[in-house]
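Question:
Write out your own:
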Amino acid sequence: MKRLIAVACMAIPLLSIAKEHSHGAHVHGAAEIDVAIDGKTLLITLESPADNLLGFERAPKTDAEKAKLKTVTEQLNKAELLFAPAATAQCKAAAPVVTMPSFKKGEHSDISAEYQFTCASVPSSVALPLWKNFPKFKNLNANIATAQGQKQIKLKPAQDLNLK
């Protein structure tokens, strides 16, 4: 756990740079994932405008929107619907931590989620089924911190996350 914290601390300057370039407000279609690998632990956090997942950013008004909110919340609690580490790594997902928006009037509504995997070996890649399950994503900014260093990459739909 200490190594994971150290890796996360090393990533802070990189993450700060990335957030400065995001111009403060969120961009519909774009989201950010932070990826840290420490030994056999893979930690992925997702920060996204609610619109990318729900199709709206205010409190749900209709029955259809209320049902959508419930469905998306359930989907976000299934790591395999968003992130699939390479099968050869034999990763097992812990229960995710999902934070849905409060929908306060006048605020941008964002959704955040944290996914932790314990793996038999370090995964070389992570497939991203989130492209298929949430087609409003148009790009992902990925901040990656591993024992080999840090990097930031921009992913487009259907791209997987290469961790090498």
Observations:
- Helices lie at 2-20, 50-54, 63-76, 130-133.
- The chain has a mean pLDDT of 88.
